[in-house]
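Okay, is this right?
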Amino acid sequence: MNSKILLPFLLSLFAGLATIIGFFITFFAKSTNRKLLSFSLGLSAGVMIYVAFVEIFGEAREIFTNNLGERQGLLWTVVFFFAGMGLIALIDYLVPSFGNPHEAHSIEDMELGERCCRQKPKLMKMGVMTAVAIAIHNFPEGIATFMAALDNPALGISIATAIAIHNIPEGIAVSIPIYYATGSRRKAFGITLLSGLAEPLGALLTYLILMPFLSPVVMGCVFAVVAGIMVFISVDELLPGAHEYGEHHVAIYGLISGMAIMALSLILFA
């Protein structure tokens, strides 16, 4: 793996491993800072929405326009943008979200786990299915991080950070039921880790499958799909999660802050 590919892969690995932060928060923090989580998820949504519409969608349109002309360029950018949304929507439809992995989870849920210890098979099924659902959702996120970083490392760092913040509550969602089903922190850690490793796996498969066929038009397709994926993740997962963790205005302040930070970074590093 050459140096150009190494950074995008490491960024996708960093984003995926953020699920482990959720595990450590579950077992070592005394309480959930719900406002901070709400602001952070809103911030991630702001970063991803701004990048998707201002940078990546525009990049895809420019590539298509240069190769296919103005009208066809816009048409195919829009088609693949919504194809990216459709991909994630299809995953949501096909993958069973047992216990809803995108519902807000907190350290205080540990008390619920203690009261439910007699239902260990149900808890184990909940934890495993949640981990599977999150792993499958993480797969296209790994593709998005990898492709963005491949084109623009600074942009890749921003997206990886936003996705990493998004993955922290998912680590909490997996580790709580697994721990109370098995009584083992090691098993809770292992399954949480595996759910996060789907992200670098998505990056690796993108490298192995797409790179031999990478042309300007293929890059345009991928960028448009990535933009759609990022917008869908923001409106379907990040913003609802931000609202569940805290007050409405906290989430919106985070959203605006994320957009402002991303706008400033694009100006500074353009």
